[in-house]
Specification:
With about 290 residues, the chain is α/β, with parallel strands linked by helices. It contains eleven helices and seven strands. The two termini are about 40 Å apart.
């Protein structure tokens, strides 16, 4: 479902007094999942049932200072048993300010012992206790948990390749050029700059823009129709004229491992090395054309 459709559905369910104690919001991207969680928190505590943005509850929720709205973001997005124990100790304390006490978990995976403890909480929560689980893929959660939650799926929207994305791609191509010209000193210096300059989320975005660039090149050189392209600003690169899905898949795997690999520098180097090797072996340039 699209976000506006989800919001309208949640409002209708609230007005019909069909409130669930446990929700799973999955699909989409982090920003959209957070938006739905914030909206659900708003309508549950808003006096107008529509997240008016003007009442005390809505103002506090929007400012992220509401005492009854708790965001839990575990390390590496893996929920631990200790975090579940904290939930069990806190959820039975009545709300301080609003009608509902809401816990929003940003997770991708639950450890086995955490899953068992978490299941006990969502089986018998207090009437005022609401648990919202945000995750990209529901398949990483146990069926015993997902079956007890109201599931909200957000349609995935391909990101637009904006000005920042174009700069990231230029940087990506520059790194390839350094390897091509055997300018290893500037190559490693440039990787260091990216690693020290950007936080983990920005580096994930950097990888995402590279993936979009690879995808667009694949579609372009395979003669797909223009409506399948994401960005109007895309300019094909001849060095990727023979790009295959294998390279895109490997790049995606590295991006996913960033969530669990604290060494971001190695992740960037790995991406550039594997792309360079692909171009040397499989690209039309055969390693002889300049990277432009």
């Amino acid at each position: 479902m699209k976000t506006e459709e989800i919001k309208n559905l949640l409002i209708k369910l609230k007005r019909k007094n069909r409130i669930q104690n446990s929700y799973i919001v999955y699909g989409g991207d982090t920003k959209l999942r957070n938006e739905i969680a914030l909206f659900l928190s708003g309508i549950l505590n808003c006096s107008e049932d529509v997240f008016c943005g003007k009442c005390d509850n809505c103002i506090r929720i929007k400012s992220n200072i509401h005492p009854d709205i708790k965001w839990i973001i575990p390390e590496k997005n893996i929920l631990s048993i200790d975090e579940v124990r904290n939930l069990k100790n806190d959820i039975f304390i009545k709300p301080y300010f609003g009608r509902y006490k809401i816990y929003i978990f940003q997770v991708e995976y639950l450890k086995e012992e955490a899953s068992s403890a978490f299941l006990k909480v969502i089986e018998e929560p207090p009437e005022y206790g609401i648990i919202i689980i945000l995750c990209p893929n529901i398949n990483f959660l146990l069926p015993t948990i997902t079956s007890r939650c109201f599931k909200i799926y957000i349609n995935y929207q391909l990101p637009e390749l904006n000005e920042e994305g174009i700069k990231n791609i230029d940087e990506f191509l520059e790194l390839l050029n350094f390897l091509k010209n055997k300018d290893f000193l500037n190559f490693f210096k440039a990787v260091d700059i990216i690693n020290k300059r950007d936080e983990r989320e920005k580096i994930e975005k950097w990888f995402e823009d590279v993936l979009i660039f690879m995808r667009e090149n694949f579609l372009f050189y395979k003669n797909f129709r223009s409506e399948f392209f994401i960005s109007k600003n895309f300019k094909p690169s001849e060095i990727f004229s023979n790009i295959e899905p294998e390279l895109i898949e490997k790049t995606w795997e590295i991006k996913q491992r960033i969530k669990y690999n604290i060494n971001l520098k190695l992740a960037i180097e790995n991406l550039i090395f594997q792309t360079y090797l692909f171009l040397e072996k499989g690209g039309r340039s055969g390693g002889t054309e300049p990277l432009e």
